[in-house]
Amino acid sequence: KSGVKFNFQIGRRIQRFGLRAGLIESTGGVGLDYFIPDFGIRTGVELFDYQKEAGPNLRLYSEIKIWNVLFMRMAGEDLISKDKKQSATLSLGLRFTDQDLAALIALFAR
Q1: Rounded to whole angstroms, how far apart are CA atoms 30 and 24?
Q2: How many C-beta atoms surround the C-beta of residue 31 within 10 A?
Q3: Does residue 1 register a pLDDT over 70?
Q4: Strand partners, 84
Q5: How many alpha carbons fall within 13 Å on the CB side of residue 40?
Q6: How far is CA 64 from CA 12, 14, 34, 39, 84, in A?
Q7: How far is CA 83 from CA 15, 16, 52, 57, 104, in A?
Q8: Least crowded by CB within 10 Å, which of 6, 43, 46, 60?
Q9: Are 81 and 87 in contact (CB under 8 A)?
Q10: 24 and 7 in contact (C-beta within 8 Å)?
Q11: Which pTM value belongs to this model?
């Protein structure tokens, strides 16, 4: 499978837990997150993309905030897949809040 994939989820955060449901990589799915805000850590599990032959895609991941807007993510994919296509990833990303974006827009608007 290739092409453009979308995520669109709705969720609820209760204390340190978050529960989500919706589209994950353009397929139906659910997710459960656990937050440790004192250390900038988020860990979670997602279950999506159910297929009769292969079963669902189970993703386990952990994210840690490295600096201000920079975070690192480690993930395992397809962990219970019947077709043995498990994989792992390590990635870096940027996450901006509304306040960060407002400051950037103001900076470039000068």
Answers
A1: 8
A2: 20
A3: no
A4: none
A5: 11
A6: 21, 20, 12, 8, 28
A7: 37, 34, 11, 11, 45
A8: 6
A9: no
A10: yes
A11: 0.81
Position 69 pLDDT exceeds 70: yes
Phi, psi for residue 98 in degrees, rounded to 5: -60, -40
Give DSSP secondary structure letters for the chain.
--S----EEEEEEETTEEEEEEEETTEEEEEEEEEEGGGTEEEEEEEEEEETTTEEEEEEEEEEEEETTEEEEEEEESTT-TT---EEEEEEEE---HHHHHHHHHHHT-
pLDDT digits (tens, 9 = 90+) for 18-67: 999 999 999 999 999 999 999 999 999 999 998 888 888 999 999 999 99
Work out whether strand 8-14 and strand 27-36 pair parallel, antiparallel, or are unpaired.
unpaired
Residue with tokens 């993703």: 59
Neighbours of 19 (CB within 10 A): 13
Residue tagged 């997602």 (tokens): 46
37 phi, psi to nearest 5 deg: -65, -30
